[in-house]
User: What shape does this take?
Amino acid sequence: MQKNKNKLYNNKALAIVAIIVLALTQRISAQNFPKLGNDTLLDIATWNVEWLGSTTNGPTDETVQYNNVLALMNKTELDVLALQEVSNPSTFNSLGLALTNKYDAFISDFSQTQKTALFWRKSMFELVSDFTLNIPLNSSDNYAFASRPPLQVCLKTLGGTKIDTLYILVIHMKAQTESTDAGRFESYTRRQNAANALKLYVENNLINKKFIVLGDWNDDLDASIYNALPTPYLGLLNAKYTFPSKELTDAGKSSYAFNTSMIDHIMQSKTLDSFYVKGSAKVFDDASTYVSNFSNNTSDHFPVYAFYNWKKLTTRIIPATVYESTVNLNINMYPNPANHLVLIESNEILERVEIYHLNGQKVCEQVLNSNTAEISTGLLSPGIYTLRALSKHAVYTNRLMISR
Assistant: This one.
């Protein structure tokens, strides 16, 4: 695919888009959306924007819808926001240009009108274009996904002491819009098949990577919206993938304005389970408090979001390995350099002694309840290490050399 066509912006259209944005943003009303994001965490959200940009479907006043969508995205201060049903490339470009000081963006290139897109905070992430694509599907899987293959956007972290990579998959599952029971059952089956294809993809292509699946799943996680059958996502749940949005299902929340179904979800890789802030999943179901008639003039879906530990994602963990002595404990450590044994004498009862390689890896630990210790170093390669001796109230850290 020609990725450069997706990336904001198409230079040929830039001047036209700027004029459109200027005209639209001058008409933005003062929607008082609250800040939903957290300044110290990573806020990840999904939102179906109901035929955004289409003049024949969705809300009838495109200017009002656009202004409300723009205001919500701008004022809620979320860090990563997946959109579904972006139905006009010019509208997408207008959004991107209006938010260019804060966000960068990417849009899918499949032929279906209802496209998926992702916005992310520029100060936090940089696009990795080589791994950003619409996931290739065979014909049966493409049919299961309603000709809307998942959009994979690969992001590299910025601004921390380490670089990590986060894969965001944006999906839009088959809706249940048929008038017949047979048609609705087929849609249920297509969602089920699409979920199986998604599971196969991530387990074959994103193993041990950090990924989050965001989107309009068009079904719930406890029981299906179709005749209360088992959820079509049972295979993913049985495989122990965490859905932060299941907290909302269990709480009886709804992400769709016109019934009680929780159909917009977030799923994360097992490698991100420890990063997720448990209990943080929320649905912005009181949006109509800030925009009158929100579900008719803006979207029939509410944004769903969750928080992740940004510091853990971007901070290189280094143990307290100070290479000069600290006199928290009165310690005698000898010989140093050591050969096969190092002896330790302390004025306090020691609880344990640890030895670290210079790369931060712990290579030895001995649990104690004594003023003295004999630490075997015979299995350690010659070199420089860090030794830490810990009592109940203090820590001693010093450099230890192993020589043969």
Observations:
- The longest strand covers residues 341-357.
- The two ends are 58 Å apart (CA to CA).
